Amino acid sequence: MDWRQNFIIVIASFSSLSFVLALxxxxxxxxxxxxxxxxxxxxxxxxxxxxxxxxxxxDFLGSGILVGKQGQFYTVVTNAHVLRxxxxxxxxxxxxxxLHVALPVEKLNLVxxxxxxxxxxxxxxxQFHADIDYPLALIASTSKLNIGNNxxxxxFPRDMEGNQQQKFVLKSxxxxxxxxxxxxxxYQIAYTNDIQKGMSGGPVLNHSGEVVAVNGMxxxxxxxxxxxxxxxxxxxxxxxxxxxxxxxxxxxxxxxxLRKEK
Length: 262
Prior knowledge:
single chain, Thrombin, subunit H, alpha+beta, 6-stranded antiparallel beta barrel
């Protein structure tokens, strides 16, 4: 059975279960607070590769994270800007190489303590059907994330040489900044990891293999000014220049907060 036949079957499944999916709250694994175990690089590599997926939509779009499961429906979180670069239905490629037809579930909004209104976050959800057991990301709070902590960013950087296969990478670095209030899009954590195009939507892990953020913005952006707070104010110029040196991610606990409130 080729992917076109799978597409027809899955679309039919999504159509017949559209009401159920609209109410779906996926099972998400949240880390229980306890002393963190420091994993080896091979252990981190294994965890990261098992929960990180490729997202395709006519072409390779970016990376995503397996965060939830309800029955045989899996939930993937990625960046909204990743999905905007393609068209639905999308395809998810899991670590075993299988392709799964995926549909967007909803657009996420970030609840900001600095505003009375919901602020748009650069996050989006996809769901796909599979009768295979895939590991899910273990999500940790960033409340104890400090400057200088080791973090590991995973994803599939876009191959600039024209090769068709995007290879999984895990890049190490350290936390550089943790903002008290988020930038537009929900970006709040800066790190030194060398993020490249294609890694957007992939996980940022702590040294215990728990996901603390979603990759989304590489250092030294070529256009625009992404360094604007959600309340519309801007950091001082010298702070913006410092921000430009780092990659940026969105804390996943903000995503979990909103899902619990729905």
